[in-house]
Amino acid sequence: MTPVRRSLVDRLRTGYTALAQEVAKFGAVGALAFVLDTLIYNVLVFGFPGLVEGSLPGHPLVAKVIATSIATVFSWLGNRLWTFRHRISRTLGHEFVLFVFFNAVGLAIALACLGLSRYVLGLESQLADNVSGNGIGLVLGTLFRFWAYRTFVFRPQVDSEGGSAQHE
After folding, report:
1. What is the pLDDT of residues 121-139, one digit of tens each?
2. Distances (CA, A) of 88 to 65, 126, 151, 164, 165
3. DSSP E strand boundaries for 19-155
4. Which residues pair with 48 in a beta bridge?
């Protein structure tokens, strides 16, 4: 029996649909991780206004590392179990190490934005921290991470004919 070859339009449509679904799921997981990261950072640095002081007000970069580390574990679980679950991936440990590495690069992007705002521009308000670290840094880091996850972490297994062996 001769295999049926799909048309270029069908292959493009299928690829676009899969990409759109991954972007939507990645965005949902990322949005929840963002809320978690931002909440933890603000509690550590600024506390709850009128109730309790932050425990790391003089250490915004340390607070960002702690908050992002917690959000990273949450994000890995969400992406592994939902966003990219249809991709056949590496062993669990290897995948996690790659995920953490690319998150560290994403964190470095956010830290660079926060550090630039705080220590070069001298902006130390809660608004400035959130715009630089959780706004600009987050957007740049997220674009990098989505590309890195799809390219290196949650790669589909390639079949013997060079095609992708993904299953929905």
Report:
1. 999 888 998 899 878 998 8
2. 30, 42, 13, 10, 8
3. none
4. 52
